[in-house]
Amino acid sequence: MKDVQEQKDYRNVYLNEVGIKKLNFFIDIKKKDGTWETTKAVIGMSVDLDESQKGTHMSRFVDVIQDNNRLDFNNMDNTLKIIRDRLEAKNSYINLKFDYFIQKEAPVSKKISYLDVGVDYKAWLKDDNFISEMTVNIPITTLCPCSKEISNYSAHNQRANVALTIRTDKFIWIEDLVKIAEESSSSPIYAMLKRPDEKYVTEYAFDHPKFVEDVCRDVKLKLDKFKNIKNYEVEVESYESIHNHSAYAKVIY
After folding, report:
1. Which site among 57, 152, 157, 209 is 20 to 30 Å from 26 CA-CA?
2. 229-238 and 157-168: which strand pairing?
3. CA-to-CA dists, residue 206 to 33, 52, 198, angstroms
4. Cα angle vertex 87, ends 84, 93, to 5°?
5. What is the domain range of residue 90?
């Protein structure tokens, strides 16, 4: 059969990226403890296209991910090399959006539950240089220092979100980023708490009041200790319980 994609194109226009987007497929992710987690991902893959080639071979992208759906993020440059070589290109790109589950132990009952965090992972191999960018959305609790200071008892508290975006040439474990966000918060979030746990978490948050500004600054100082991070962005949004707006802070490095 005639291979139309391999035909010559005479318009002399190089395309930076061609490929597929929004492919729903399951992937196995290697966790920090060495075990594997299966989750559904929304996947995009692309390569560059030489100005002389009419089109790329779209079906090969699906072949690649079906044959290489077990992903070790410490070894993603090899996956990108497979994409590049299979598509006969110079540069390759991948984008994965998925939920990642963190095993958590309740502070008093020690009950195990699983907290899901949203991950948007991008990586590219360009001119044989590997770089990755990852955004992790981590739920936390914030308790208002001002509310605590001016009230005779109690203080307003609410769920918040820390969005960490890091660009690096070496993988930073998702678990480590979750730990940074939680240690910078008034209290971590848990999927399951018994009554003794609820008492502990409530009182812990009361003893660790944080503005969104506090969380943002504390996260930044912790990220500064990672030498492999080239750039990062921290966004903290607190879904206020007594206001009809969110509180927000951001820092870019």
Report:
1. 57
2. antiparallel
3. 32, 65, 12
4. 45
5. 4-252
Model confidence pLDDT, tens digit, residues 225-237: 998 899 999 999 9
Q: Residue 73: helix, strand or coil by DSSP? A: helix
In Å, how far from its chain's centre is CA 101? Answer: 12
**pLDDT value, residue 99:** 98
Phi and psi based region of residue 22 (left: phi greater than 0; alpha: psi -120 to 50; beta: remaining) = left
On the CB side of 197, CA atoms within 13 Å amount to: 18
Q: Average of pLDDT values for 34-59?
A: 95
Instruction: Kindly write down the DSSP assignment for every residue of 166-224, as one continuous string.
Output: EEESS---HHHHHHHHHHTSSEE--S---HHHHHHHHHHHHHS---HHHHHHHHHHHHT
* Residue 185 tokens, joined: 């918060």
The string of pLDDT tens digits covering residues 54-75 is 999 999 999 999 999 999 999 9
Of the candidates 42, 178, 21, 22, the residue with the CA atom closest to the CA atom of residue 99: 42
Here the CATH number for the domain that contains residue 79 is 3.10.270.10
C-alpha angle with apex 27: 24 to 122, nearest 5 degrees? 75
Cα torsion 10, 13, 17, 21: sign:
negative
Mean pLDDT across the chain, nearest whole number?
A: 95
Relative to beta strand 157-168, strand 15-30 is unpaired
Check whether 5 has a pLDDT greater than 80: no
Q: Residue 42: count other Cβ atoms within 10 Å of its Cβ.
A: 14
**Number of compact structural domains in the chain:** 1
Query: What is the SS3 assignment for 165?
Result: strand
